[in-house]
Design a protein that fits this description.
It contains 8 helices and 7 strands; from the N terminus they run ββααβαβαβαβαβαα. It has 200 residues and is of the alpha/beta class. It has a 7-stranded mixed β-sheet with strand order 1-2-4-3-5-6-7, with helices on both faces. The chain starts with a strand and ends in a 5-residue tail after the last helix. The structure holds ligand C2R. Ligand C2R binds next to β5.
C-alpha cells in the first residue's frame, strides 16, 4: 500500500502497522507508529526484481515495520543511488535492503556511501542464475560490509532487518520470537500429521 511520498521514494506502510500495531501498548512500538517514518529502505536494481523483492516488504508489513521501496541502480542511476545512501540516515532509515541480479553492485555501492547496516539480496537471473550476483554482493572489501543473504533470499533480508531493529525496538524482537514459535508449532503439527499418514 502506498500511503505517501517522501522525497523521491515511495513510502509503504503495512495494514497491520496502521490498525493492529497502532493499539500496541509498548512505548517503542508507539514511537515507531507516531514517527510514521520508514525505518527500512528496500532498493532494487530494476522493476524486473520486484516479484522477489516485494517478499521483503510483505515480511516487514507482517512485522509492523514501516518501510519504503524504490528502484535504483549503481550502474544505470549512479547519482540517485549515491544520494539515496548518503541521505538515508538523516531521513530516518535504520537499515537498507538492496537486491540486484547479475553484476550486482547495488548493495556494495550503497554501503560505500552510508554506515547504516546494508543487507544485500543477490537475485537469480541471466546466464549464471544468481551465482554472479552472490559473489558480487558478498565479496566486499574489508571496511565496507554487506550482510548478504541467500540468492533470492528477500524474506530473510527482512527478518534480518527486524533482528537489527530489535536492538532498539524490543517489541520487534518479541514479534520475531512469536514468529519463530508459530513456525515451530506449525512444523511440529505437520510432523505429527506425517507420522499419522494424514499429510496430503
Ligand atoms: P533489467 O531487467 O532492467 O534489464 O535488469 C537488476 O537488478 C536486474 O536484475 C536486469 C538486472 O540488472 C540488475 N541491475 C544491477 C544493478 N542495476 C541493475 N545489478 C546494479 O547497480 O548493481
Amino acid at each position: 500500500m502506498i500511503l505517501g511520498r517522501r522525497k523521491k521514494h515511495a513510502v509503504f506502510l503495512g495494514p497491520k502497522m496502521l490498525v493492529h500495531k497502532s493499539i500496541d501498548k509498548t512505548t517503542c512500538r508507539k514511537e515507531i507508529h507516531m514517527q510514521n517514518k520508514p525505518l527500512v529502505g528496500i532498493l532494487m536494481g530494476s522493476d524486473s526484481d520486484l516479484p522477489v523483492m516485494e517478499k521483503a516488504g510483505a515480511v516487514l508489513e507482517e512485522m509492523g515495520v514501516p518501510y519504503e521501496m524504490d528502484i535504483s541502480s549503481a550502474h544505470r542511476l549512479p547519482d540517485k543511488t549515491a544520494e539515496y545512501a548518503r541521505t538515508a540516515r538523516e531521513r530516518g532509515l535504520e537499515v537498507i535492503i538492496a537486491g540486484a541480479s547479475m553484476a550486482a553492485h547495488l548493495a556494495g555501492v550503497i554501503a560505500a556511501h552510508t554506515t547504516l547496516p546494508v543487507i544485500g539480496v543477490p537475485l537469480a537471473s541471466g546466464a549464471l542464475n544468481g551465482v554472479d550476483a552472490l559473489y558480487a554482493t558478498v565479496q566486499m572489501p574489508p571496511g565496507i560490509p554487506v550482510a548478504t543473504v541467500a540468492v533470492d533470499g528477500a524474506k530473510n533480508a527482512a527478518y534480518l532487518a527486524c533482528a537489527i531493529l530489535s536492538i532498539k525496538y524490543p517489541e520487534i524482537g518479541r514479534d520475531l520470537d512469536k514468529f519463530r514459535e508459530a513456525t515451530r508449532n506449525e512444523l511440529l503439527k505437520k510432523s505429527e500429521k506425517l507420522r499419522q499418514g494424514k499429510l496430503d
